[in-house]
Every structure is written in structure tokens, then in C-alpha cells.
Amino acid sequence: MQPHARTGYALSALAAVVWASTAPGLSYLITRYAIPGLTLALWRDLLIAVVCAGGLLAFRPALLRIGTRAIVQLALTGMISIGMYHALWLWSVTLNGAAIAVVLIYTYPVFVALGAWLLFREQITKAHIVALALALAGCALVVRAYDPAILRISWTGAVIGLLTALTHTVYVLIGQRNAPSISPWTTLAYTMIFGALTLVALALAADYLAPSTRSYLWSIEAPSAWVILAMIAVGPTLGGYALFTQSLRYIPGKVAGLISVIEAPVAALIAVTLLGERLELLQVVGIVLILVAVVLPRFAARVQQTATLVASRG
């Protein structure tokens, strides 16, 4: 494996590990403080936008000067793959349950591979197709999608879940395209700003269409909840996005997306460690399948390179 490829693999794997701690933190806030998910998504993204934009303005303001065309592109990306993505994700969890929503969102590496083939003319090898299938099957086992009590899905839920995957695909493909010319921090700043603004608009619309005593904009009251949310925002969420976006400078999006599925087993292991949950045998099988999927394309490429080298010497 080339040094830059090793760096990309390491960054995307680390991003998945860091991201895995986001869901338990948000779940705690929803359960402990009864905060709507849309509110958490809005303020989390807004905090990240403030940190990224503020940091760049203070230390590297030149990185924010990327031209009108690039800003418009990142604005659309933020609206779709941050704002709409997070809103659709919450809707998917509501309709499908968390487990099935996770399975549906992790179809996004398939869409990334197809998008890279259509847009960048990247080949999809047989090994990558097998790896995608193994990763999806492994993810389904890790979240116990085989349990009848968990497996509940409607056509509406399936469509929303797949739209969640498609909106996240936009971030990966645009990130890969911009990686050589735009700093990952610039990408994060602009996409998070416009993503947060999109969520503000959605929260205002929700308040108007379904008025209640608690506004989606101002549903966080406890100071401790703000502290926890800020830690989640500038810690695992910002860290995960930064690492993943940086990885796109070294490896294709279809590879980074496949590696990111590691998040599912890591989240399961966090639940075992911190929440005292037990892994079932099929969940362990799922973890193994995901790990095999992650290394399979690279292993197949190494085998092919070795065979080609032997043939050329012969």
C-alpha cells in the first residue's frame, strides 16, 4: 500500500471511530433532557459552523476566499448533505427505528461507488462489489435487523432512509472532487454554515405547521445539556467530519465510504463497554464481515499487483 493510501485509510478509519461516539451522546440528551432531535441537529451544526468559520477568520482567513462559484457549490452541498441529511436522518429513525435507519444510511457507500463511476469514471471491481455486500450484511447483523421486534419498515420509511444515504453521498462526492483544491476546513465551514441555516428554516417551518409550547429553536434549557452538546459538536462530530474530509485527499470517496462502515461495530462495542449490553453471536459475525469488507478491496488489489509482477518477470 502506498504511503498516501495508508494515510487515507487511517484517517477514514479514525473518523469512523470518532463518529461512533456521537449517537450515544445525542441519545443521552434526547432521553435525559427530552430535547427534540431537530433542535440538537440544528445547534450542533451551528456550533460547528461557528468554530470552523471563527477559527479560519482568526488564523487562516485566506482559506475562506475561494470564489463565488465554489461558495455556491458548497452552499448547495451544505443544504443537501448537512441540513437535509440530518433532518432526513431524524425522520428515518422515527419511521424505521434506529437499527433499520442505520442499515439504510450505510447503503451510501454503494451510491458513492456508482456516483464515482458515473462522474469520475472510476472502475468498480468485483472485489469492491463483494465488499459492499459484506459491509451491508455485516451492518444489518450488528444492529440486529434480523430481530422481528426491530425489523419494521414501510415504503415511506424505506424511501426516507435511502434519501438519507443519497444526501450523504453528495458530501462524499463533492468532497472528493474539491479535495485537491479546497481545504477540508473550508469545506466544513461553508457546508456547516449553510446546513445549519437549512435546519433553522426547517425548525421555523415545524414551529409554524405544528405549534406547541416548546419551540424547536429554543428547546434546550439546562446549562448541562448545552455543555454536553458543545462537547459532542466540537469533539466527535467535528473531529469525524474533519478526519473523513481530509481522508478524501488520499483515497477515493468509494474507499473512504466503505471504511466508514466501521462506525457500526465501534458503536456496538461502545454500548457493550459503557451501557453493559451484550453482543449476540450474529452481531459478532456482523463485525467480522465488516472488517473483512474493509480490507478486501485492498487485499484483492495487492494480489492482482503481485500476479501482474510475477507474469511480467516470467
UniProtKB/TrEMBL annotation:
EamA domain boundaries: 7-143, 156-296
Record has Membrane as a keyword: yes
Subcellular location, principal: membrane
Transmembrane segments: 41-59, 71-91, 97-120, 127-146, 152-173, 185-205, 225-244, 256-275, 281-300
Keyword Transmembrane helix found: yes
PANTHER family: EAMA DOMAIN-CONTAINING PROTEIN (PTHR32322:SF2), INNER MEMBRANE TRANSPORTER (PTHR32322)
Protein name: EamA domain-containing protein
